[in-house]
Amino acid sequence: MYRADHVGSLLRPSDVLEAPNNVDVQNKYILDVLSRQKDLGFKIFTDGELRRRGFMTDFYDSVDGLDMDGSIARAWHGGNVNNRLTGIVVERIRQKKRLAKHEVDFLKQYSPGDIKMTLPSANQFPAIAYKKGLSERAYKTYSEFLWDLVPIMKSEIEALVNEGVRYIQIDAPRYSYYVDPKWRQYIHDEMGIDPEEALDEAISVDNTCLQDAERDGVIFAIHLCRGNNRSQWYAEGGYDPIAEKLFNELNVDVFLLEYESERAGTFEPLRFVPRHKGVVLGLVSSKIPQLETQAALVSRVENASRYVPLENLAVSPQCGFASTMEGNLITEDEQWRKLQLVVDTARTVWGKV
User: Fold this and answer.
1) Which terminal Cβ of the chain has fewer Cβ within 10 Å, N or C?
2) CA–CA separation, 218 vs 241, rounded Å?
3) Is the pTM here over 0.90, yes or no?
4) Distance between CA atoms of 257 and 281, rounded to whole angstroms?
5) How does pLDDT run across 77-110, given as a tens digit for each residue?
């Protein structure tokens, strides 16, 4: 495991925000963030998702069949913004290009070390892209839509492995629906699906996407998020309702888990993590500017090691710093200080990163 990890997205410099489609500007700042990661001491590198408008947009840009003018309202905690998510499925999905090839080609040329590539889970889309009254003309059910996404994600994962990517992280915020009572009710009432059956299907979908891609030396990980948009979140609750099933049945090597606040619950659900799987403890907040103390992080790692062996643990921020291009409400300097803290904590606890 990489003892010092990060979820992937980094704050976009103002030049990138002002010219979001300028590849030359993107290249310049991607080289900069690669250098900064190396200087801090990281051994795993991302491009900060600087080419993306959000963590899902590689998918949106790669398919036809979505109405990008449609929207579904979503309320977030921690702010007064009611976001509207575009991308409603109105026709059968048709893939027109690879998701991340343009990103990995640049990273293979310039990354100073092992590459991490992030992809959204197929499970991300039915809850936000399937709108009753519009989407039935393309897919009769949420499930039919969901399984039609699997070949796209599966082929992308296989391609990344074949291109030498050492770390593939699936970003899967929708698993938080199953830990938050209000969202479990939403699944039941609004989507018309039994939450436990939906959880079983979600695990089966992610496992199918990863099937046949296993290769020695490649880490497959999943990041479980409670929402991350302008320092807001949409779900709360500990991992208890899903821990035993998810940790045992999901065929990944590593779980990146949010643990930066009380809304994530306790470490006790980690007792269900099998001994051949790792856990990256997201102990540093990417949402707030206040810098955590190393002593507090070391103490929390020690507490978590009561349930997962220390050699199976690592440390990171709880989420990315910019799941959407606007980013969280902190500065770039605060971001880099937090990432330095991650590296310093890893060296203190494990003697390496």
Assistant:
1) N
2) 29
3) yes
4) 6
5) 555 545 554 689 999 999 999 999 999 999 999 9
**Tokens 């291109």, residue located:** 163
**How far is the C-alpha of 103 from the C-alpha of 51, rounded, in Å?**
8
Nearest in space to 221 (alpha carbons), one of 310, 106, 312: 312
Taken in order of first residue, the domains within the chain and their CATH numbers are 14-64+92-350 (3.20.20.210)
d(CA 46, CA 337): 17
- Residue 133 pLDDT: 86
Q: Can you read off the two tokens belonging to residue 276? A: 């051949």
Q: Which of 64, 66, 70, 62 is nearest to 86 (CA)?
A: 70
Give the integer Cα–Cα distance in Å for 129 and 201.
17
| Token couple for 280 | 């990256």
Q: Which two tokens stand for residue 82?
A: 């009611």
Neighbours of 305 (CB within 10 A): 17
DSSP-assigned beta bridge partners for residue 67:
88
β-pair partners for 94? 64
**C-alpha to C-alpha distance for 307 and 93, rounded to whole angstroms:** 42
